[in-house]
Amino acid sequence: APAVPRAAAARGVGRRTGSDVVDDAAVVDRRCALVAPATRSPSRRRRASVPARSTTASTTSLPSLRRLVDEITGTASSSLSSPGDAPPRTVFVGGKGGVGKTTVSSSLAVTLASDPESDLTVLIVSTDPAHSLGDALDVDLRSSRGRPIPMTDPLTGGRLWACEVDPTAALESFRSNLEAFDVDKLADALGVNPATLEEFGLREFAGLLNNPPPGLDELVALSDALDAERRYDAVIVDTAPTGHTLRMLALPEFLDTFLGKLIALRAKLSGLASMLQGIMGSDEAAQRARTIDDAMAKLEAFKVKMGGLRKRLTDESRTSFAVVTIPTKLGVAESRRLMSELAGQGVKVTDVVVNQCVGDNAGGDAGYYERRRAGQQRWIANLR
After folding, report:
1. 110, 156, 262, 268: which could form a disulfide with 18 (CB 3.0–4.6 Å)?
2. DSSP bridge pairs for 349
3. 7-165+231-249+318-381 belongs to which homologous superfamily?
């Protein structure tokens, strides 16, 4: 059995529990949580004395990131008591590569699942191609092949499920939904010349099959992982770095338009089937008509699935996005771009988590820490 999840053991946080990381944060304006890492002295390479609670430049104590946990818990609990089938509260955690997204997302998931009073069933999903969620939770998720598996540790009591999406399998699933519209395969099934179907504009769809847009595999895999969403009260999504995530989040709208065009060809293809019926025997023509109907039904089901995911992403009452960053020029610049892009896509950003912050009374090498902290505060101010 895997060990107790060590969600906080990743990248500069030290071996603490997920709850520790959540408590060791403070919030400003847009709910910007400042998290103090276990830093090292640059001269003596020893662990510095960093206070558990970080503060802003004004040294005013601020609410902790636990407010987000309480909010998720409250939303999830209300859906449990409501008569309808409300989807689970979902939080996407994203940002620049290497800023601690997996640490934050796994800490949130572990904290939510560790409260026996709330008794919430939590799913954490990683869509990052360079998966490290299994390392953060100290469990092998690669063998799950994209299927959620339960954590068996005593801390979460079987309430935490985790998975790393399998992009390869997801891409095959996507292709299986569209392969019936491959020009050559459809022409063979209908017994017509491929050139006839090319006149309908089907050739362009072959390009999507052979060269799918970046992020499509992660999107389909995420949708598959969330198929059994009724089992979960809260879902935490550990996303890929900024650019990859933005492409993934923009795809549902693209696919809706793209698949809509393909479905609009139903009338033309049905007309072709009727024409064939006059040439061939009725049984053979009927079989070929069923080929078109079956392919369309499969495609429409996939379109509905992607549309549901898009609706979920933009549902501010159930879904939010937490941006994770570090207080540097590059980290803040990329985070601001991410927040702007997300707003343009209708995705609500509720929290900004700033990792690797130096506390206002950090010990050792005082001059170094004072300069570093002053620099960090300048960039944190740009996030407000």
Report:
1. 110
2. 321
3. P-loop containing nucleotide triphosphate hydrolases (3.40.50.300)
Location of structure tokens 């080929």: 291
Give the 3-state secondary structure of residue 180.
Answer: helix
Q: Which residues lie closer than 8 Å to 89 by C-beta, 6 or more apart?
A: 72, 75, 76, 79, 233, 234, 235, 318, 319
Which positions are catalytic? 128
| Cβ-proximal residues to 65 (8 Å cutoff; 6+ apart), any chain | 22, 23, 25, 26, 27, 33, 35, 351, 353
Neighbouring C-beta atoms of residue 81, cutoff 10 Å: 6
The total number of residues written for the chain in this structure = 384
